[in-house]
Amino acid sequence: MTSSTESWHRVNYATPRSFGTTLKANLKETFFPDDPFHQFKNEPVSCRFLKWTQYFVPISEWLPKYSFELFKYDLLAGITIASLAIPQGISYAKLANIPPIIGLYSSFVPPLIYAVFGSSKHLAVGTVAACSLLIAATIEEKVSANDNMPLYLSLVFTATLFAGLVQTSLGLLRLGILVDFLSHSTITGFMGGTAIIICLQQLKGMLGLKHFTTHTDVVSVLRAIFQNRKEWKWESAVVGIIFLIFLQFTRFVKNKKPKLFWVSAIAPMVTIIVGCLFAYFSHADKHDIQIVGHLSKGINPSSIHLLNFDPTYISAPIKAGVITAMISLAEGIAIGRSFAIIRNEQIDGNKEMIAIGLMNIFGSFASCYLTTGPFSRTAVNFNAGCKTAMSNVVMSICMMLTLLFLAPLFSYTPLVSLSAIIMSAMLGLIDYDKAYHLFKTDKFDFCICMTAFFGVSLISMDIGLMLSVGLALIRALLYVARPTTCKLGNIPETALYRDVEQYPGAHGNPGILILKLGSPIYFANCNYIRERILRWIRDEHSLSNSKGNEIEYLLLELGGITSIDITGVETLLEIRRCVEAKGIMMILVNPRLGVLEKLMVTKSIDTVGKEYVFLTIEDAIDACKFSLKCSDQ
Q1: Residues 419, 498: Cα–Cα separation, whole Å
Q2: For residues 216 and 461, is the Cβ–Cβ distance under 8 A?
Q3: CA–CA dist 347, 341 (Å, integer)
Q4: C-beta of residue 319 within 8 angstroms of C-beta of residue 158
Q5: Alpha carbons 132 and 371: distance in angstroms, whole number
Q6: What pTM was computed for the model?
Q7: What is the DSSP letter of 554?
Q8: Which SUPFAM superfamilies has this protein been placed in (predicted)?
Q9: pLDDT tens, 160-169?
């Protein structure tokens, strides 16, 4: 195709980059999209070492600038979240079927580790209900807590260690992309389903049952409740309902008047204190109201010697560790980012993975089980005005004082009050508005959400999660295997070419069909792309014949194609042969660097012809019109 003008833009046929250069660029985009080390460039060695330290140990950056003014805010926030950490620690430990004191231990050591390595100013560290129940359900597949508590507890610590190792490895290897496969739809459905089964399981404590099921699905839980109806205690139910109404009322007050957030924040602690006083003075254990029992003084003992790698049981802690690692990372990072955005700040997801992983590794050595950044505690921390991660240090100190001096006082805590606290917290995790929003805006996302919800509720937590993630992956694969293509037309009185379906007023050029491909061309979608292009040509032929215009040129706009594999290159050549057999010339427009390099390396550019490759659609159309004019003459 010859040119009639020298004004056309030239396509850059520079020598293709070497394999090493291409690999380096691709790895950088995959693992370092945010270019975290740009601050180290052109810096002397001494400054570079300081910045490396500040990058990997964030406390070394903000602590030298710390002031008493900031500490006043962090002190208030730390005390506030400590008042929430005590009842939640005891409650969620009960949910994991481990001694309540372990829940208190888990709010002492991990927050200190996170304060050193965490990058979020607002994240408050603690145990979470979903992971507590998931650990219990997975470990009890091998060992029952009632039959062998020492072995069960050792496997819980081992699961926490594996979770920490997975999280730290993901952060060090910059593999945060794996956590992205847990979509918001999956998390919403998973949390909702988990909240349902946790609420139902708390009926054991609310009704004072002594026998219950180890299964987590709704059917098994309801069956256990009604099979043991002879154990129902009306006294326990009455006390539990009163506590639950009180807790829900404080949540109502918080929602109506956000400035009174502290009312909801201290409500669980008030419930614990009132419950302890009630149980002590009324001798609740004599009225069939169960209490927590003995809680010993003292800070965390070492649990390194309790870690259990026995091949007979190791599969359970590995499974629990991997699944809870992913869930807790997704929850912790999402929550940290949500509150950072409010303050127009940014946190590094990979550094958060390392911080959360390290606190779980060290926690497993100090009689702690899995921790992350729970939403309720983080929201209270944020609303209380925290300025830095020092609020976690304050909470940790409060927990240390509690463990050293106050722990035995909580031994009178009624189990029914813990059940009420858990149920109240779980009712807030069922996001009806989000589910309805998904239904109205994206039916497929709604299906993913409901798959997680019903899978968790009716089958099991791990199966429900895997089903939802699997459905989300199928959707992603469909996007890859069935990429979008569209016909472009010129918007009148402009030089813009846009999708004719989106802009019906856009018109084409006689004898020229312009198609835009919007996805990398891989082996998985090559057949579809070929068939779709030939279908476009067939449909356009039918339309053109009715107007007396034959298609002579096919323009493929490749600006949206970032990469192409060998199968994709062969597909382009095959399309060229097919359209040439119909008397149509194929023209490539705006090929990206990776695509053009692949065409040059494979010598396919010579087959296509450099004269049939243009930088812009306007240049290609001008050349086609000039060629058509010459043909007519």
Answers
A1: 59
A2: yes
A3: 9
A4: no
A5: 9
A6: 0.78
A7: E
A8: SpoIIaa-like
A9: 999 999 999 9
